[in-house]
């Protein structure tokens, strides 16, 4: 099943297919497979990502795989997109105006792009005047960053380091850290002034 799937296979899916197997059985089997792959020097490994399991080629073989498949590097996120995504990941659920208050600039276009790439999703509406939309991350976000679940979200500094290593982040991303400010107040004042729901 792991070899045939292009996406992470969730534990629930494995227990459903493997009659009689519980979560503990799946975990034990995954650990044993991972041990065997590492000890036998395979070119791939079993990784935990997006609340599931996936077989992935070891990073050192990426150049040859990329050349064989004749694919270019995946489109990288812009600095603005990374800043906005970091805010949503660490503050979710968060409104557009709250994200803008932290970044200090408009995020309409960036947010639209993140929604199109399924890295963020609408989680509902905030129960304040205007009922603005609330945004959070998706399973695609977990897969993109190689995270098993949101509980494994690294400290901000670790996330920055990962992105720097991938060549996707400039030092300016650190401006998002701890800049909560008066987002909620600004949001209510702005919505009250316009009388419109944000989209």
| Domains, number | 2
Mean of the pLDDT scores? Answer: 78
CATH superfamily of the largest domain: Winged helix-like DNA-binding domain superfamily/Winged helix DNA-binding domain
Low-confidence spans: 169-185, 191-199
Work out the helicity level. 40-55%
Distance between the termini: 40 Å
CATH architecture of the largest domain: Orthogonal Bundle
Element order, helices and strands? EHHEEHHEHHEEHHH
CATH class of the largest domain: Mainly Alpha
* Radius of gyration of CA atoms, rounded to a whole number: 20 Å
Spatial strand sequence of the major β-sheet: 1-3-2
Shape: globular
Please, how many helices? Answer: 9
What does the largest sheet look like? 3 strands, antiparallel
Secondary-structure content class: alpha+beta
Number of strands: 6
Strand content: 5-15%
Task: Output the CATH topology of the largest domain.
Answer: Arc Repressor Mutant, subunit A
Structure overview:
- The chain is an alpha+beta fold.
- It folds into 2 domains: 9-69, Winged helix-like DNA-binding domain superfamily/Winged helix DNA-binding domain (Arc Repressor Mutant, subunit A), CATH 1.10.10; 79-194, Orthogonal Bundle (Arc Repressor Mutant, subunit A).
- The chain contains 9 helices and 6 strands, in the order βααββααβααββααα.
- It has helices spanning 11-17, 23-39, 62-69, 79-91, 96-103, 108-116, 139-145, 156-165, 183-194; strands spanning 9-10, 44-49, 52-57, 94-95, 120-125, 133-137.
- A 3-stranded antiparallel beta sheet has the order 1-3-2.
- The chain is globular.
- The termini are far apart.
């Amino acid at each position: 099943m792991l070899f045939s799937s292009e996406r992470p296979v969730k534990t629930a899916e494995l227990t459903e297919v493997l009659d009689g197997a519980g979560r503990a059985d799946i975990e034990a089997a995954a650990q044993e497979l991972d041990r065997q792959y590492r000890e036998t020097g395979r070119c791939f490994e079993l990784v935990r990502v997006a609340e599931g399991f996936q077989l992935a080629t070891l990073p050192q073989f990426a150049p040859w795989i990329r050349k064989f498949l004749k694919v270019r590097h995946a489109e990288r996120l812009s600095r603005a997109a990374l800043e906005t995504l970091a805010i949503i990941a660490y503050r979710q659920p968060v409104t557009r105006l709250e994200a803008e208050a932290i970044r200090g600039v408009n995020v309409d276009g960036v947010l639209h792009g993140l929604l199109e790439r399924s890295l963020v999703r609408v989680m509902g509406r905030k129960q304040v005047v205007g009922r603005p939309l609330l945004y959070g991350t998706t399973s695609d976000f977990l897969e993109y960053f190689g995270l098993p679940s949101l509980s494994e979200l690294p400290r901000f500094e670790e996330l920055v380091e990962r992105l720097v290593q991938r060549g996707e982040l400039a030092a300016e991303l650190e401006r998002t850290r701890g800049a909560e400010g008066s987002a909620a107040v600004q949001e209510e004042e702005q919505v009250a002034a316009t009388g419109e729901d944000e989209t």
